[in-house]
From TrEMBL:
GO terms for cellular component: plasma membrane. SMART domains: AAA. It comes from Salinirubellus salinus. Keywords: ATP-binding, Nucleotide-binding, Transport. This is ABC transporter ATP-binding protein. Residues 5-237 form the ABC transporter domain.
Length: 249
């Protein structure tokens, strides 16, 4: 079966710096793919280029059988490939619910339907009790949930998550992960950039490792974390680490 997401030779340069150097990666429908790699290895750039926030310098992106290379971010999101950001930025003056209603959802033209979707999403993520609070009153962790909620308004086939639990307390982290797993069971595909290796180990079916803008390994978590090249990539940024566990946690 053709992959849901197929990236071929994606390249992004910032002046002389090649942040993504011919990155190729295929994700199957229903898969959870983890992307790991040391700081500055090009993971966020990959998401930004893939989703049209950066103009690519080469390569193609095919999603659900359609070539979406060079498309604008909103069109890509509406095609079913949505993303969250490492730094969340809700409309702070709006309430939580209003933040969801502000998402452009072409599939739900009737306001009543959109309100119903918003209420379902709020309940699913267990933030319905703060629906009428201003977003500015939310904790950092709750804002991460709001970010996810905004993405769910689009009912996407595939969600790219950029560090979904960074800076979130452990109880809330667990809740976020439970919800992601539930969505995956219902068929949503995920690509997740995360430094928290326990999360990757628990959630990802397979892992792609970036280093210096390139894919250097791919496979299941235990397989890739044993690879010498992966250990070396992390060692370069953490010379004191002695074991793989030290390196990757
Ligand atoms: N807008 C930009 N302008 C110039 N250089 C950039 C820009 N964004 C990223 N870079 C550079 O591209 C390289 C890859 O950065 P990127 O943020 O994609 O890495 P990352 O793997 O996501 O890192 P981290 O894990 O720290 O988030 C780095 O050298 C970074 O300094």
């Amino acid at each position: 079966m053709a992959p849901l997401l197929d990236v071929d030779g994606l390249t992004k340069r910032f002046g002389a710096l090649v942040a993504n150097d011919g990155v190729s990666l295929s994700v199957a429908d229903g898969e959870v793919r983890g992307i790991i790699g040391p700081n500055g290895s090009g993971k966020s750039t990959f998401f930004n280029t893939l989703t049209g926030f950066y103009r690519s310098d080469g390569g193609t992106v095919t999603f659900d059988g359609t070539d979406i290379s060079g498309w604008k971010p909103y069109r890509i999101a509406q095609q079913g490939l949505a993303r969250t950001f490492q730094i969340v930025s809700p409309f702070e003056d709006l309430t939580v619910r209003e933040n969801l209603l502000a998402v452009h959802t072409p599939g739900l033209r009737v306001t009543k339907e959109k309100g119903k979707r918003a209420d379902e999403v709020l309940e699913f993520l267990e933030i319905d009790h703060i629906a009428d609070n201003e977003a500015s009153e939310m904790s950092g962790g709750q804002q991460k949930l709001l970010e996810l909620a905004r993405v769910l308004m689009l009912d996407p086939k595939c969600i790219l998550l950029d560090e979904p639990t960074a800076g979130v307390n452990p109880a809330l982290q667990d809740r976020i992960l439970d919800r992601l797993e539930e969505m995956n069971e219902r068929g949503t595909t995920f690509v997740i950039v995360e430094h928290d290796m326990s999360l990757i180990q628990r959630f990802a079916d397979s892992v792609t490792v970036f280093d210096q803008g390139q894919v250097i390994a791919e496979g299941d978590f235990d397989e890739v974390t044993r690879e010498t090249r992966v250990r070396e990539a992390y060692l370069g940024t953490d010379a004191d680490a002695e074991t793989t566990e030290d390196l990757l946690t």
